[in-house]
Predict the 3D structure of the following.
Amino acid sequence: MSDCIFCKIANKEIPSNLVYETENIVAFNDINPQAPVHILVIPKKHIESLNELYDKDLAGELLESVKEICKKLNITDYRTVINTGKEAGQEVFHIHLHIISGRPLKWPPG
Ligand code: 5GP
Ligand code: ZN
């Protein structure tokens, strides 16, 4: 999608700090980190949210990539978050999975 910030990051039209890339997925550091480690994992393809994710292979790749990214960065303890919809805190409507780590995390989230 032409005006989607995460599509632009995936296409490298705008710079980001990429930490991982495959044919279908990229991961990069969040611009406003909520913990010492805060990575966003996205499919290169524009999909608005989890509610529009029908591709099981891609869903599997997204989850598997989390494991690979954490292995690569020596992260053992982390939280994964997918915000879906405005009320749940979704601000960017290109599906993304947060990996948050590097400090103790409270539960339940706010
Ligand atoms: P959401 O609230 O939609 O689940 O998460 C969106 C995340 O994207 C936020 O944590 C926000 O800091 C991050 N973000 C928004 N715009 C940019 C950007 O241009 N570059 C990067 N690296 N992160 C962004
Ligand atoms: Zn997009």
About this structure: The longest helix spans residues 56-72. The first strand starts at residue 18 and ends at 21.
